[in-house]
């Protein structure tokens, strides 16, 4: 199966590397041509792959790369059949111009696999891309980029959950996609009830992302301090009332799952932490802002999530031009 990956951040490069190592056709679309040239000439260096020791040398992975905004992107689409398009950019990049470019590029019936944090974007994409199969995807994989954006470190083994399409044609492609992912050693599942996982990830992100950004700590460090742990629990309690009202089926183990994510991705710096430190726009509006908006729909107050929204924005780094996806 052919794979086009839009976004050369940590998850995008991790997916591109693992799929390419399994012998599959991968084309990585970056924000800038400069970034594409660096990856195209020097390859991606993958560190921390399954079974490797911490000190193992990174594996060099060759992938095709070009800018999303150049005509070569149209050529990539035109030459490929049985194509999966992975959208790994952050919600902050999904502006009107970006979505218009997607509309121009993607053929009718294309699988667009959306891996964004937060809520609200799936509805926007479905409305704008009415001839494309917009598929929500949840991943618990952990990854970090280093050394000029060409080295990606696989910091946490996880799973990918993909919403099962109701279209017979799209579902047939999804079955081939699952074979493709298994070949790459990626644990993936098709799900008819992805809403629970979307709300579950929103809940986890609404706790870990803003607090790691504000305290400037890695995921594993967050619960180690009793004050931070108390604030984590308060944010969690506020959030779970909202997602439960929105229809999430709760098992009663959500708090333990949140702490497990911190343990499993202990070495990770959350995307919001890295964005704040690098002066990039964060996803706070679609995560804590999205959760607060969801609470308003059900008449539930969300003062702590509103506070996270205000405090992260108060850092003064919003609306800064990003160097890449």
Architecture overview:
There is one protein chain. The protein is α/β, with parallel strands linked by helices and 325 residues long. It folds into two domains: 190 residues, Rossmann fold; 120 residues, N-(1-d-carboxylethyl)-l-norvaline Dehydrogenase, domain 2 (Orthogonal Bundle), CATH 1.10.1040. 45% of the residues lie in helices and 18% in strands. The protein contains twelve helices and twelve strands. An eight-stranded mixed β-sheet has the order 5-2-1-6-7-8-11-12, with helices on both faces. Helix 1 links the parallel strand 1 and strand 2. Helix 7 packs across helix 10, helix 8 crosses helix 11 and helix 11 runs antiparallel to helix 12. The longest helix is centred in the middle third of the chain and has 21 residues. The protein is globular, with a radius of gyration of 19 Å. The C terminus is likely disordered.
Summarize this structure as a short list of keywords or feature phrases.
325 residues, globular, Rossmann fold, eight-stranded mixed β-sheet, alpha/beta, single chain, 2 domains, N-(1-d-carboxylethyl)-l-norvaline Dehydrogenase, domain 2
């Amino acid at each position: 199966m052919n794979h086009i990956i839009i976004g050369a951040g940590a998850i995008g490069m991790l997916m591109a590397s693992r799929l390419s190592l399994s012998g599959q056709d991968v084309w990585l679309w970056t924000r800038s041509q400069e970034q594409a040239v660096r990856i195209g000439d020097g390859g991606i260096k993958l560190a921390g792959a399954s079974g490797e020791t911490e000190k193992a040398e990174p594996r060099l992975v060759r992938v095709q790369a070009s800018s999303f905004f150049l005509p070569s992107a149209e050529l990539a689409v035109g030459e490929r059949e049985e194509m999966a398009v992975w959208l790994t950019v952050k919600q902050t990049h999904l502006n009107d111009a970006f979505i218009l470019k997607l509309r121009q590029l993607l053929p009718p019936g294309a699988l667009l696999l959306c891996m964004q944090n937060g809520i609200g974007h799936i509805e926007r994409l479905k409305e704008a891309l009415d001839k494309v199969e917009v598929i929500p995807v949840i991943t618990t994989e952990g990854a970090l980029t280093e050394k000029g954006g060409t080295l990606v470190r696989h910091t946490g083994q996880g799973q990918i959950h993909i919403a099962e399409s109701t279209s017979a044609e799209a579902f047939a492609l999804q079955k081939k996609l699952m074979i493709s992912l298994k070949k790459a050693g990626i644990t993936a599942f098709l799900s008819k009830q992805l809403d629970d996982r979307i709300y579950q990830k929103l809940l986890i992100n609404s706790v870990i992302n803003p607090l790691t950004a504000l305290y400037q700590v890695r995921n594993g460090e967050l619960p180690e301090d009793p004050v931070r742990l108390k604030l984590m629990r308060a944010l969690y309690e506020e959030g779970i009332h909202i997602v439960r009202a929105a229809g999430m089926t709760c098992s009663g183990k959500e708090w333990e799952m949140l702490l497990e994510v911190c343990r499993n991705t202990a070495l990770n710096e959350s995307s919001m932490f890295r964005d704040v430190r690098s002066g990039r726009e964060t996803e706070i509006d679609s995560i804590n802002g999205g959760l607060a908006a969801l609470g308003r729909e059900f008449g539930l107050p969300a003062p702590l999530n509103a506070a996270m929204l205000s405090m992260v924005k108060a850092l003064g780094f919003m609306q800064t031009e990003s160097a890449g996806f």
